[in-house]
Amino acid sequence: MNQEQENLLFQAIGEIQGSQAAILNDLKDIKADIHQSIEKSEARQKEITDGLKLDIEKSEKRQITAINKQDDRLSKVEEKLTNQRVKVAAMGGTAGLAVSLIAYAVKNGMAG
Question: What pTM, to 2 d.p., does this model score?
Answer without folding.
Answer: 0.49
